[in-house]
Write a structure and sequence with these properties.
heterodimer; A: mainly beta; seven-stranded mixed sheet; four-stranded antiparallel sheet; B: mainly beta; 12 strands; globular
Amino acid sequence: DTGVSQNPRHKITKRGQNVTFRCDPISEHNRLYWYRQTLGQGPEFLTYFQNEAQLEKSRLLSDRFSAERPKGSFSTLEIQRTEQGDSAMYLCASSPDRGTEAFFGQGTRLTVV
Amino acid sequence: AQSVAQPEDQVNVAEGNPLTVKCTYSVSGNPYLFWYVQYPNRGLQFLLKYITGDNLVKGSYGFEAEFNKSQTSFHLKKPSALVSDSALYFCAVRDTSGTYKYIFGTGTRLKVLA
């Protein structure tokens, strides 16, 4: 499969725990995005990487959220001290440097209990 | 600030009838516009885009969209709806100020009735 891959697909965690999600973009796609989607809403932008550089972070992204993209390949999104309000679908997308549309992964559904 | 609006939460259409899902946008400069579809518990799937050129763009699964600059609209259309088209549809605009992020509408649920 050459699409965007996200792991895990589902994660249930207790409030206060830390979680980490992984995204493997399409090979050679330089741009990588993280979005959050809650039920009945459109995806909300969280952060964007150009290669390994994190170029933009949304004001929605609290200090508990951190994302990395070492070596410009896969990316991780970590949420520390999870809260019930963090329950959502976390979507990763990638696009080539000269591309226009982004290609999305299947998402990681986080449930904080 | 750039934004898109999808005025209808839900659109119902009978199978075989034409469908339209509405989208209006607000951007500075030339818009890059997109439609995505989402099936339950799945990621977003790209349908079509408008960058420049013909105002009528064709995409996957028989969908097309009409770009109207004067009305700042980018409505999604299909001549004959299928039950399998039932899904959540999102309009999006890509930021043109250099960050390249995509800004999504709130989505429209399309229900095609047999």
